[in-house]
Specification:
mainly beta; 10-stranded mixed beta sheet; extended; 4-stranded mixed beta sheet; 301 residues
Length: 301
């Protein structure tokens, strides 16, 4: 927008950070997408208003952190899911003084490397003309970016097409612009061992327990580091409201010398074993890709 005049945007747009920016999309029912952190932090600078013939997105006091893709599309009667073939998008670079890299909320980030999919090191810049290079911390060297195995996408960052143990370690990026050079935050690249899919679950517990004794049954999942696992228990004393204690934990572990896995556990603890505690203890572990149920039977001596 320039002094109230609206123009059709191309695939990218470069503007100075600070002023308000207004985007419009023609249609009576419009959906929008924009940099995710604006939703994550419920940023009050962003507002969307639907008018009779168009939808209006306004971003006040723009900053370098707002750099990213803004898209709009016409919603159907059945819903407002984004259809890439029918959407209009533009990637906006908000350039600010001293900010060549898009600011991050942390000084150190973890990037997980999966053998079956590309990995992205999100070194994004706020100036479309900045020259960006990738560097390894130990040994101190510049990483070769050949455009095939490792390539740079100005809208995403460095893309590693086939991650392997050779890529793990600490890296950072450098950006050169107008005779000055800036360094990004550091990224820890960790290689993941387990494949994507429903949880792989193991259950362990005693087969026999003496009357009056305490015991526990443990449900363990080894899975992807970034995937949340939820647990649910069904146990013999449940219908009689038998009191039990359930403890859950999750942590990253190293498998061998190169792989990283998340170990999630749920432990059901039963005190003062009695007759109503005899039977099957069933643990169901679920993640966004499915669920798995395992069981162990506990009897009395």
């Amino acid at each position: 927008m320039d002094k109230g005049r609206f123009v059709k945007l191309g695939s990218t747009l470069s503007v100075s950070a600070g002023p308000n920016i207004e985007l419009r999309c023609r249609g009576t029912k419009i959906g929008w997408s924009y940099p995710a952190y604006l939703d994550t932090f419920k940023d009050s600078r962003l507002s969307i208003k639907q008018h009779d013939k168009y939808s209006q997105l306004v971003l006040q006091n723009s900053t370098a952190a707002d750099t990213g893709e803004f898209s709009c599309w016409i919603c159907e009667d059945s819903g407002c899911t984004k259809d890439e073939s029918k959407s209009a998008s533009t990637y906006i670079f908000f350039s600010g003084k001293g900010d060549i890299f898009v600011p991050s909320t942390s000084y150190f980030e973890i990037v997980y490397l999966y053998p079956d999919k590309a990995a992205i090191i999100p070194c994004r810049v706020t100036h479309a003309t900045a020259k960006v290079t990738l560097h390894r911390e130990v040994p101190a060297e510049e990483v070769i970016v050949d455009g095939t195995e490792i390539a740079y996408d100005i809208k995403k960052g460095f893309i590693i097409q086939n991650p392997s143990f050779e890529h793990k370690g600490v890296v950072y990026c450098k950006a050169a612009l107008g005779g000055t050079s800036h360094m990004s935050i550091k990224y820890q690249l960790l290689l993941v061992e387990v494949p994507s899919g429903p949880p792989y679950v193991a259950i362990a517990g005693p087969n026999h327990v003496h009357a009056g004794a305490n015991f526990n049954v443990t449900c363990t999942v080894l899975g992807e580091p970034e995937v949340q696992v939820d647990f649910n228990w069904i146990y013999p004393g449940e219908k009689d409201e038998r009191p039990v204690t359930i403890q859950e934990s999750s942590r990253l572990i190293n498998r061998g010398t190169v792989h990283t896995t998340r170990m999630s556990q749920s432990i059901i603890i039963v005190q003062d074993f009695e007759t109503i505690d005899t039977g099957d203890y069933m643990c169901t572990a679920s993640n966004p890709l499915g669920e798995t149920t395992v069981a162990v039977r506990v009897d009395s001596y």
